[in-house]
Amino acid sequence: MAPDPSSPPVLFDRALLRARQSRAAGRGPVTFLLDRVAEDMVDRVAAVLRDFGRAADVGTPGDQVRRALTPRLGEIAAVALPDDERTPLTLEPASLGLAISALALQFVNDLPGVLAQIRRALKPDGLLLAATLGGDTLTELRQSFAAAEAELEGGLSPRVAPFADLRDLGALLQRAGFALPVTDVDRVVVRYGDAFGLMDDIRRMGATNVLTERRRTPLRRATLLRMAQIYRERFADPDGRIRATFDIVWLSGWAPHESQQKPLKPGSAKASLEAAVKGRAPPSPGGGGSTRMK
Questions:
Q1: Treating both helix axes as pointing N-terminal to C-terminal, what angle do 195-204 and 139-152 enclose, rounded to 10 degrees?
Q2: 3-class secondary structure for the chain?
Q3: Buried b (16+ CB within 10 A) or exposed e, 166-184
Q4: Assigned fold of 14-140+158-191+206-215+245-257+274-293
Q5: pLDDT for residue 246
Q6: pLDDT confidence of residue 284
Q7: Which residues of 209-245 are buried (b: 16+ CB within 10 A; e: fewer)?
Q8: What is the pTM of this model?
């Protein structure tokens, strides 16, 4: 059967992703990113002073985020992201006060469709709070692989998944019908002894290459060694340890409700923009950040 031209492109092999996540769980998963998201999720939920009622976790690998939120929210339903994204999520319309998702949406082929389904599952004034990898995540690894393959193999192959940037994700929230959408970035820089330590952590996250257009032949040893050399040349600190960037993009949006604040009508402002910004320094980029050593 020919593919439906109206369907989104299939970038990720989700069955392979599930298999690799299962294998990583069996080996002993690396969870420092999920642990960080769980801690931040607790703080962000606590900042909303209301009773959410029924809550669901959409696609988060593992259960540490749900366990962290249980004292505040009670039981949280786990909702899987289907491998075949033509299958709807198991969510009833207008049934949730809160939907959360942690480090899962970056591997969704039809992200607009999934966000729209979550939006329909929220009650009026229900909240979506999600964290996904985006921005410059693993940019150092991507650049190092590209340089090594161009030098030794005369061409590039997709080794690191593409990640959406902050503005695109904010636009997707609006497209899905969320009110008051907000996005911000938490940049985590992790330091490793070498590129092989980073790649081992990625395997134990269940997050190795699941692109459908990935090269099926084994990676040449010479290319791998050259990649590690380039990585150290370009992205090492003075002590010789290399840096790896993980951008955790936070998304929040509300199901529309008449009680929510509305944007002002054009021309209704009481003060000029010039007066509002005069004498103020430009705002710093959103989100915090930290450095971690491995």
A1: 120
A2: CCCCCCCCCCCECHHHHHHHHHHHHHHCCCCHHHHHHHHHHHHHHHCCCCCCCCEEEECCCCCHHHHHHHHHHCCEEEECCCCCCCCCCCCCCCCEEEEEEECCHHHCCCHHHHHHHHHHHEEEEEEEEEEEEECCCCHHHHHHHHHHHHHHCCCCCCCCCCCCCHHHHHHHHHHCCCEEEEEEEEEEEEEECCHHHHHHHHHHCCCCCCECCCCCCCCCHHHHHHHHHHHHHHHECCCCCEEEEEEEEEEEEECCCCCCCCCCCCCCCCCCHHHHHCCCCCCCCCCCEEEEEC
A3: beebbebbeebebbebebe
A4: Rossmann fold (3.40.50)
A5: 97
A6: 38
A7: bbbeeeeeeeeeeebbebbbebbeeebbeeeebbbbb
A8: 0.84
The residue assigned the tokens 């996250």 is 205
pLDDT tens figures, 81-109:
998 878 899 999 999 999 999 999 999 99
What residue segments make up the domains of the chain, in order of their start? 14-140+158-191+206-215+245-257+274-293
- Neighbouring CB atoms inside 10 A of 27's CB total 12
Residue given tokens 């988060």 in the structure block: 60
Q: Which residue has the tokens 């009833």?
A: 92
> What six digits make up the tokens of 269?
């402002």
d(CA 11, CA 110): 9
Predicted local confidence at residue 283, as pLDDT: 39
Report residue 284 as tokens: 């710093």
